[in-house]
Amino acid sequence: MRPTMTKHKHLTLSDRNDIQLGLECGETFKAIGQLILKDPTTVSKEVKRNKQVRESTSNNLPCPLLAKAPFVCNGCPKRRQNCGYQKVFYLAKQAQKQYEQTLVEAHEGTPLNSQTFWDIDKVISDGVKKGQHIYHILKTHNLDVSSSTVYRHIRKGYLSIAPIDLARAVKFKERRKSKLPSIPKEAKKGRSYEDFQNYLSLNQLNSWLEMDTVIGRMGGKVLLTFNLSFCNFIFARLLDNKTALEVTKHLYDIKNTLHQAEKDFCQLFPVILTDNGGEFARVDDIEMDV
């Protein structure tokens, strides 16, 4: 069985040792990638990111051969000779140290009390007050911070400016987020649309009850609609909110009303069809008879 690529996994020291050994043997990035189960692009980026110029040759001209793969002198036959050009190497242990240092710095977070942070704050705040966009400010001043981090710090009040100072931010409304939990996977077993079709075919049924919700104003009342497929008749119940508890409460009220009239809801509507909305998450309560 052919091994698969290991995605979303950081390179280890063992992987970097294999990369260095592969470069010294003159292997391609593809061959090295197959050995460590990584994409060739990952190997290429790793080499270019961590290649180092030998200090004794730093004043020499760049070697024209290093403009293309493998970008380093590890596999060059003249690597131990004085060729007159810069010597560039990929060293696994140095690459691992650089990776670990980057990982530590990433976990440290933003030093809010450092002089660097306040300098960045001044540059960004002055630029925004002049009507400049965040992206333009970052690129113009080569600030070592991402635009998403800047926007997050502005929202949290870390900087001297507020969201109201941004030219476009005040035009956007906050995104609507659904708070309804989805139907659990366990509850969906045996209740898929394919199961629904098979059940109709097996029991020779040609009608069903279809339920759905219609939202008006956000946060307001909701209509729970019932569509009788055999006569294309629709009626609705007004819900106080769009929740699974509210749906089952009104459905139980309908079942109880029919029961008092000596009618059986499950016999009248043996099959109910809904979507995957969170308001229908309490499937056991929906299917339960009074």
Key features of this structure:
single chain, Nucleotidyltransferase, domain 5, 42% helix, alpha+beta, 290 residues
Brief overview:
The protein has about 290 residues and is of the alpha+beta class. Helices cover about 40% and strands about 10% of the residues.
Describe the model.
The chain has 290 residues and is of the alpha+beta class. It has 3 domains: 94 residues, no CATH class; 61 residues; 103 residues, Nucleotidyltransferase, domain 5 (2-Layer Sandwich), CATH 3.30.420. 42% of the residues lie in helices and 10% in strands. The chain is built from 12 helices and 6 strands. A hairpin with a 6-residue loop joins strand 3 and strand 4. The longest helix has 17 residues.
- Cα-based radius of gyration, to the nearest Å: 32 Å
CATH architecture of the largest domain: 2-Layer Sandwich
Q: Would you report the number of β strands?
A: 6
**CATH fold type of the largest domain:** Nucleotidyltransferase, domain 5
**Sheet/helix structural class:** alpha+beta
Mean pLDDT: 85
* Helicity level: 40-55%
- N→C terminal distance: 55 Å
Number of domains: 3
Number of helices: 12
Basic shape: elongated
Query: What percentage of amino acids are in beta strands?
Result: 5-15%
User: Secondary-structure element order, as H and E?
Assistant: HHHEEHHHHHHEEEHHEH
Residue stretches low in confidence (pLDDT < 50, at least 5 long) are none
CATH class annotation of the largest domain: Alpha Beta
Q: Characterize the biggest β-sheet.
A: 4 strands, mixed
* Spatial ordering of strands, largest sheet: 5-4-3-6
